[in-house]
Amino acid sequence: MNARSPFFWGSATASYQCEGAWNEAGKAESLWDRYLHEAHLENGDVASDHYHRYREDIELMAKGNQNAYRFSLSWPRIILNREGDVNEAGVEFYSRVVDACLEFGIEPYVTLYHWDLPQYWQDEGGWLNPAVADAYVRFARVCFDRLGDRVRYWATFNEPKWFVASGYLIGNYPPGLNDPQLAIRAAFNVMYASACCVQVFRDGRFQGEIGIVHSFSPVDGIDETLETRIAMRYADNYCNNWIMDTAAKGEIPIDLLADLNKRYDLSFMSSRQLDVIADNTVDFLGLNYYSRTLVKPYTRGETSIVVNNTGASFKEKPRVVLKDWFEQVLDDPGMEVTAWGTEIYPDGLRRGLLDVYNRYHLPIYVTENGIGVVEEINAEPIDDEYRISFMRSHIEAIKAAMHEGADVRGYFAWSSFDLYSWKNGCEKRYGLIGVDFDRDLRRIPKKSFGWYRDFIARESTAE
Ligand code: BG6
């Protein structure tokens, strides 16, 4: 086991969103490359060009007093084909990134999968195909073998809830499906792959800890009635429990299974797979927190999930209705929201952390937290007081939860620098450092970068 690390004050990125170099040095195509190219949408071909500028970026993190960097590995950069041939240039790139982190005193905190599935596996059915789970585990094994001498923190997946719901239920992410039966199948294959990955990590006696990163959205109800409480349970199962119970306790929530079993075919779940899930639980939970989910009882209509991917110009009314289960309240008059309609609600993080800790008794890392805004890259530093206020209030919420007993061990701001925001493009900026996407990709610190740097310095002296 590791000696206990200091509290991590870091920031985070993901391979597709920041690296660029989409077809350089042997990298294979990912499903996001194919999907965005075919749809002629803004893409991550260049993104923040982190592939070429990683050293400058990591040095900036160190100048900002950050002691951990959460990033992901691009599977198609590392594995060339379905046969599993390794792209040495890809492995060497990540090896250099890890070495740069260590040189600058930064803990590399590595996510194995942040959504960029190789297209050659999407061509075989993506997460609907159990063979993809096996291939993912072989990919993970290569990463442990080649980087495990220097990496001590691993996450199996980033946000299964988000990429499965978006890709297989809502259809706004690749592969663009909206079919609950298929979504259930993909969800199960992902959670099974995660457990197999934990098994390989343990069997290989690799150093360090392995966890999973979840898009955490604590559920609140509009009132205290029985109907609302039932709706809250459905929402919690949908938003949170199928990932956290499965990964941390090795159990898919039994009421969720019973309910799904009435409507869908679950015969594809074998008892052997359920045993692997039960026997291989994670060491920690990574929670990405952007907002809570406020719910009311289901009243009418088909399952319908419409989310804002374009900010203020979004024309449709966002809505989340899960037939017979719950409806999400997105326009409560008291809500303070961003231009994308995301509620700013730090107290959800305090209560949520306590709840998660009390349920699972595992160490927790807040692996993402941030605010996406359209910003002018016109001054140095870029004035982003709202981001400071957002981070300050959320960090205060974390401290309050820790004070009340939650075992939180790190905070990662999303994002280290501006990057590509999936369907929103580069216009939706989250970075502590600005990136001049229109000209030369120059890095320009924002005020929040300096605020975070000084905050970390004060925290380190206080420790
Ligand atoms: C998280 C993801 O869901 O939210 C990130 O892990 C993502 O990859 C972030 O960028 C913010 O979402 P968006 O859609 O605003 O970029």
UniProtKB/TrEMBL annotation:
Entry GO MF terms: beta-glucosidase activity
GO cellular component: cytosol
Active site residues per record: 368 (nucleophile)
UniProt EC number: 3.2.1.21
Keywords from the UniProt entry: Glycosidase, Hydrolase
Pfam families membership: Glyco_hydro_1 (PF00232)
Gene Ontology biological process terms from the UniProt entry: carbohydrate catabolic process
Family recorded in the similarity comment: Belongs to the glycosyl hydrolase 1 family.
Protein name: beta-glucosidase
